[in-house]
Structures are given as structure tokens and as C-alpha cells.
Design a protein that fits this description.
Largest sheet: 13 strands, mixed
Radius of gyration: 33 Å
Structural class: mainly beta
Mean pLDDT: 81
Number of strands: 32
Helix content: under 10%
CATH class of one domain: Mainly Beta
Low-confidence stretches: 1-22, 128-148, 257-279
Distance between the termini: 100 Å
Shape: elongated
Number of helices: 2
Oligomer: single chain
């Protein structure tokens, strides 16, 4: 009779692990990473088990792995974990056969023959992607096998060749070969049996972004907005019929060579469409962020880019704005200057910019048929011509925008509107404790039809204490050092705005 006297029963059982794809969930962040949750089938004995799982991505962060029994019926502890992301390839097999002789298939014109060659050096440079710790921060690193070993060395008939003599013919796969990225675990459990375990981890190689198409009729202030999310899967893994979520916000995530920062995803669909069609994406607040969930399971193939419509809003009121900010300032020239130095620099802010900006603005509110948190992304504008054809009229980016906030973006410069700004007076007090500056701004509307309003923005950059001593038009104070004149011009009309500002300190 065999005597068993171990405190722990050690049974190294190779457990075949199959992913339950129907229970796969992926939360994608727009920082090139994602959180993956797989339900995997385990068949364990009490004690220690040797388990292999070949269903991970090629860019997983190994120290983010969490393995648990979701029903809480058994204790699971990973005693040891090994991760390999170097699936079999020709160069990998050459590496595994280093020091051995194999056959090579050589084709010359119409003749094919086999020659034997000993692999002195394979030239294989494995890329091991993992995390390296510096202080209390982790950075993703890529380690290589040997510097300068990318060129193979093959011995044929006693002579060394620095290239392959032909196509290598390998006798068989080695025991050290894998076909997919693989995790090897030593798992200890207190309860035997077959069950579904939950595996979660962070992986690189996945990202998402939002894009918006804004369509309007010419000379119309009502637009339609169609929003898309684009999901990019470069993780090295197929996610079949997975539950997909997109996180939006600013999530802190340490990146190589950068301080902690973050991006995620924002919100979606509450009532973006007047039709009765069900939205493809739903949105909710989650912690300090917004979480978007695709309302149907979808398959994400490796190396695939998938697009899903997530917002469709019609009848959104939108204004076209013309803004003239005439001061052309080269901030690189004045980089590092103290405020007092800029105040006394006579030529500061006197160079003229003649371009009038075209901007689009709309209220992200329910009463304006929107009212959904908008993830940051690109806003593209299209205008429908009289013949019905849509023309591209500009694009820009927006940041994460909560509901009930105003969206304003620059789309280009007006062709038929011109501004010209010049300083007409500069006077500084003898005690150097006050300064007067006078400006003249000319505005011209060269359009053949249609009145326009140009918002003239003037930055009072000399000092924080100021007052407008003289003015030709009324103005609005938009912040502590900015005023705005609103000037209406008829077709072919020209107007001049003048003002005098008095600074004290």
C-alpha cells in the first residue's frame, strides 16, 4: 500500500481550458488599452494544478490578471504564472532548432533539390512585451533576445552562410512551441470539480474614438448630427459575440515615458433620434466617467476596425459665427517673458491678422434635440448645395462635452469677410504707472447678399487693471481681460470700430 503523508495534495494535472465566448466582455478605453473579462472552464483537483490557457491577447499586462470563482464557492490562488506571446513562426522554429541540422528546399530555375544545413544562429529576435517597474510606477517595455543577432548563420558543406540557403523543412513542432499567446498557471484550490471561472486582465492594442458628421442646408441654422464610434482591435485576439463597452472621461493610466494621464469614452444615446428605432448604444454615468454599452453582442476580429452608429439627432439648432481676432502674436517670440516685460514692450500685439474665423455653435441640450454626453472626437461639417449635393466645409475636434454645455468649433476662414487692425496711439505716463492705447479695426463684407454679424474679439493683454476710455461701438466683457464688439454689416458694407483703453498699475 502506498503511504500518502503530504499536507497538500500536489496533482499536476494539465487542465484543458476553453473560453466561453458567449460570456466574453470587453471595455475599451481610447488610450490603446482595454479590460477583458472571459468566462473560462476549469476542471481542477483539490490542491495544486498545472493549467494552460491559450485564449489571451498578445498585449496583455500580465500583472493585471484576476482569476476568481464568480459564485464564490471555492478559493483560487495562482501560485505561479508564466506568459508567452511568441506563437510559432519560421524564425521561431529556427531558433528552437539552433545547433541542429535540418533540410532546406532549394529552387533554381526548374530544378528543386534538398540540402542539409546546420543552424548556427537563427537570427530570431523575440519581442517580449511586459511591464517594467521604475520606483512605484510601471511602464510597458519590449525586450529583445540579443542585440545584432537578426542575421542567421547556416553551415552548409562546412561553410558558413549569412542567409538561409532555401526554405527550411522542419521535422516537427518542438515541445516548446505554441500556436497562440498562452498563460501557464500553477493554481491551488480547496475544492475540486468542473466550473466556470472569471478571468479579467488589462490588454494593449485596443482603442476607440468618436466621430460626428454635421449636415445642414446652405444658409440654414438647423443641422442633423450623426455620430459614430470606431473600435480598433490590434490585440492579437478574436472576440466572438462579446459584450462591448466604451469608457469615456479622463482615466489615469501610466504610459511609457509619460506622467499619469488618461482618456476614456463619454456617453450616448438617450433620445438622439425622432424615429422609433432602438438606439444601438446606451449611455450611463459610471463613477466620474461615462460608460457606453453596445446594445447587442458583436464580434471583434483581430486587425479589424468596426464602426457603430451611436447618435442620430435631427432638427438641432446651430449658429454660424464670424469671429475676428485681429491681434497676430508670435507666442514663441515672447516665451518666458514676465507680465511686466510684456506690458512695457511697445510692439507687443500690434501685428495684424486679416482672417475672419468661421465657427459653428450648438447647445447640447434636450430642448435642442441633443442632451447626451459627447465623447471627444472629430466634428465634420457638410453643407448641402442647391442641387442637393453635400460639400465638405470644415472639421475640428471637440473635448469630452457633458450635456447642457455649449459646443463651439472653428471650421475655417471666411472668404468674403476681411478684417484689418492697427494701433493708432500709444502713450505711457512719465511715472510709468499708466498706459493708453488706441486701436482701429476695419471690417469689410464682400458678400453679394446676406447680412452678417462679426464678433470682434479684443484681448486687453497689457495689464489686469483697465477701463475703456473711448469707444465707437458697445461691447461685451467676456472675461477679466477680453471684450467683444458685435458689428452688423450689409453686403458690400465696410465699418470701423475704434476704442481707447487706459491701463493703470
Amino acid at each position: 500500500m502506498r503511504k500518502i503523508s503530504m499536507v497538500w495534495i500536489i496533482a499536476f494535472v494539465f487542465a484543458s481550458v476553453l473560453a466561453a465566448a458567449a460570456d466574453t466582455a470587453v471595455t475599451v478605453y481610447n488610450q490603446n488599452f482595454a479590460v477583458v473579462r472571459d468566462m473560462i472552464e476549469l476542471d481542477l483537483v483539490r490542491g495544486i494544478n498545472d493549467v494552460q490557457f491559450s485564449g489571451t491577447t498578445a498585449h496583455m499586462e500580465t500583472d493585471s490578471v484576476i482569476l476568481r470563482d464568480p459564485k464564490g464557492k471555492r478559493r483560487l490562488q495562482i501560485l505561479e504564472q508564466n506568459y508567452r506571446a511568441d506563437p510559432i513562426s519560421q524564425s521561431r522554429l529556427l531558433f528552437l532548432y539552433e545547433g541542429k541540422t535540418i533540410e532546406f528546399l532549394v529552387t533554381r530555375k526548374d530544378r528543386v533539390k534538398k540540402v542539409q544545413g546546420k543552424i548556427i544562429r537563427s537570427g530570431y529576435v523575440p519581442q517580449n512585451i511586459g511591464l517594467t517597474r521604475y520606483g512605484n510606477q510601471y511602464y510597458q517595455t519590449q525586450n529583445t533576445y540579443t542585440i545584432g543577432s537578426s542575421q542567421p548563420i547556416i553551415e552548409v558543406d562546412g561553410q558558413l552562410r549569412f542567409q538561409l540557403p532555401g526554405t527550411p523543412l522542419f521535422p516537427a513542432l518542438t515541445d516548446d512551441s505554441i500556436l497562440k499567446p498562452t498563460l501557464n498557471w500553477l493554481i491551488e484550490t480547496d475544492r475540486p470539480g468542473r466550473f466556470n471561472a472569471e478571468l479579467s486582465y488589462i490588454t494593449g492594442g485596443m482603442s476607440w474614438e468618436a466621430d460626428y458628421n454635421v449636415v445642414c442646408e446652405e444658409n440654414n441654422d438647423v443641422v442633423d448630427i450623426i455620430g459614430w464610434v470606431t473600435i480598433d482591435n490590434q490585440s492579437g485576439k478574436l472576440f466572438k459575440k462579446a459584450k462591448i463597452k466604451l469608457m469615456a472621461g479622463d482615466v489615469s493610466k501610466i504610459q511609457p515615458g509619460h506622467t499619469p494621464s488618461g482618456y476614456v469614452a463619454d456617453a450616448l444615446m438617450e433620445k438622439a433620434c425622432r424615429s422609433r428605432m432602438q438606439p444601438t448604444v446606451s449611455e450611463k454615468s459610471f463613477d466620474e466617467y461615462h460608460l457606453y454599452t453596445l446594445n447587442r453582442k458583436t464580434t471583434l476580429r483581430d486587425r479589424e476596425t468596426k464602426q457603430v452608429e451611436f447618435v442620430r439627432a435631427t432638427g438641432v439648432k446651430s449658429k454660424k459665427l464670424y469671429v475676428y481676432n485681429g491681434a497676430k502674436i508670435d507666442f514663441n517670440r515672447y516665451r518666458g517673458w514676465a507680465a511686466e516685460s510684456l506690458r512695457n514692450e511697445k510692439s507687443y500685439g500690434t501685428e495684424c491678422n486679416k482672417k475672419v474665423w468661421v465657427m459653428r455653435e450648438f447647445e447640447n441640450s434636450k430642448k435642442n434635440n441633443m442632451g447626451i454626453p459627447l465623447p471627444k472626437g472629430v466634428l465634420r461639417f457638410y453643407t448641402r448645395d442647391a442641387d442637393g449635393q453635400m460639400e465638405f466645409t470644415g472639421e475640428n475636434t471637440i473635448d469630452h462635452t457633458p450635456k447642457d454645455e455649449k459646443v463651439r468649433v472653428y471650421t475655417g476662414n471666411a472668404f468674403d469677410l476681411v478684417g484689418e487692425r492697427k494701433r493708432t496711439q500709444f502713450k505711457r505716463g512719465t511715472a510709468r504707472d499708466w498706459l493708453d492705447e488706441t486701436f482701429e479695426i476695419k471690417l469689410k463684407n464682400h458678400k453679394e447678399k446676406g447680412n452678417v454679424e462679426i464678433r470682434v474679439v479684443e484681448n486687453l493683454y497689457r495689464w489686469v487693471n483697465w477701463k475703456i476710455a473711448q469707444k465707437s461701438h458697445d461691447y461685451i466683457k467676456t472675461d477679466s481681460q477680453t471684450i467683444e464688439f458685435r458689428v452688423n454689416l450689409k453686403p458690400g458694407e465696410e465699418k470701423t470700430v475704434t476704442y481707447k483703453v487706459h491701463y493703470t498699475w
